[in-house]
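Researcher: We plan to redesign the surface later, but first we want a full-length starting point. Tokens attached.
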């Protein structure tokens, strides 16, 4: 399995991000939340992903950047599980929603649980 996170998978389109917040559905596993929407984009990738860490919870940019790197790495390591459950193309944003400073292992475990929950949600 390819464990990369290529440029084509990065969610950068302002219109798609606006669509996520206006029409997207949400699934959560504390302290993570995934907002997603089915969207047919041009690139030949099954999904596009973006991350966000609240400035409200982490005032220093160095802390926010650390957690964004951790979220991207957890996605990269576990995206095979996520892609296996997809039947169409999706765009999603991955949020870290607490001021608690969890370890990488805890975040990775929550990420796996969140991806399982997302897979069950879209199968319904």
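Model: Full-length starting sequence:
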């Amino acid at each position: 399995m390819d464990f990369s996170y290529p440029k084509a998978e990065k969610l950068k389109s302002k219109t798609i991000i606006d669509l996520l917040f206006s029409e997207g559905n949400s699934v959560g596993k504390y302290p993570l939340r995934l907002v997603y929407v089915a969207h047919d984009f041009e690139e030949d990738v099954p999904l596009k992903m973006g991350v966000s860490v609240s400035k409200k919870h982490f005032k220093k940019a160095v802390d926010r950047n650390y957690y964004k790197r951790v979220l991207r790495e957890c996605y990269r390591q576990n995206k095979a599980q996520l892609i296996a459950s997809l039947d169409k193309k999706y765009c999603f944003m991955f949020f870290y929603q607490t001021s608690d400073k969890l370890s990488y292992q805890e975040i990775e475990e929550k990420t796996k649980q969140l991806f399982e929950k997302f897979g069950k949600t879209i199968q319904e």
